[in-house]
Amino acid sequence: MSQDSLSPNSITAGLGTRFIGRKILYYPELSSTMDIARKEARRGIAEGAVVIAEEQRAGRGRLKRAWLSPKGSIALSIILYPRISGLPYLVMLAALAAARSIEKVTGLKTQLKWPNDVLINGKKVCGILVETEVVESGPAYAIIGIGINVNFRVADFPEILDIATSLADELGGEVSRVKIIRQLLVEVEELYSALPDGEPIYQEWRGRLVTLGRKVQVKTGAATLEGIAEDVAQDGSLLLRQVDGSHTRIVAGDVSLS
Ligand code: BTN
């Protein structure tokens, strides 16, 4: 597939944001945008700076998994310096921003799966990874990593074929990555600027989750729990009602809908 250029200028020209995406660090290839973003955050780069890669050699997912980001993907990390009260909302706002921007640019309908997967027709199209360094006085920085499967055929990657989709597969043709990135940066800024009031973010995120009310299996550490995903709390945790009626709060895990 031919690819649109992700040059910093094509992203920033006329971009209607105040600080998110005003500075773009573009790499044709790197290990992970998270690593470069961390180095830049430690050096104190301006809030809202974005590291973008055409290709990642060692993209990371949640729970120490690898993240495949071949040519045609969106792989980016946004550097933020939030207050501690804002931390629980970063994952939610990133998932919402990705879902909104995919919907606005492509017209496709997305769903969210707890904690932060964006799905189309039940298959994963986008993943979110938030990494934070906290020091005694509060967070030193937070990095929101967003990976979106855009212009490649998932059929070319058998390892993700059963669980993932791409925008090109759903649309039957290519879509502009620049348009999606620009919309994404606008959405992130709008949502992030509402903090410390995280209530609207939490409500929209909760409302979009396909997980709630469903029978699920949750892999958390070595255990796999089964039950009904009853609710999510404002800190992002999942409340699971198990078969014996007991409730368990899950902070990190992986859900399969049954
Ligand atoms: C997940 O669903 O497990 C999270 C995937 C996050 C992938 C993105 S791609 C940009 C950034 N750089 C990485 O190495 N990971 C995140």
Give an account of the 3D structure.
The chain is an alpha+beta fold. It is built from six helices and twelve strands. The strands form two sheets. It has a seven-stranded mixed β-sheet with strand order 1-2-3-7-6-5-4, sandwiched between helices. A hairpin with a 2-residue loop joins strand 6 (123-135) and strand 7 (138-148). The model has no long low-confidence stretch (mean pLDDT 94).
Task: Give the DSSP E fraction (strand runs of 2 or more residues).
Answer: 25-35%
Give the uncertain stretches in residue-range form. none
Largest sheet: 7 strands, mixed
Alpha-carbon distance between the two ends: 35 Å
**What oligomeric assembly is this protein in?**
single chain
Arithmetic mean of pLDDT:
94
Give the number of DSSP strands.
12
Overall spatial form:
globular
Which strand order does the major sheet show?
A: 1-2-3-7-6-5-4
Radius of gyration (Å): 18 Å
Series of secondary-structure elements, N-terminal to C-terminal: HEHEEHEEEEHHHEEEEE
The amount of helix comes to 25-40%
Give the class from helix and strand content and strand pairing.
alpha+beta
Q: What's the tally of helices?
A: 6
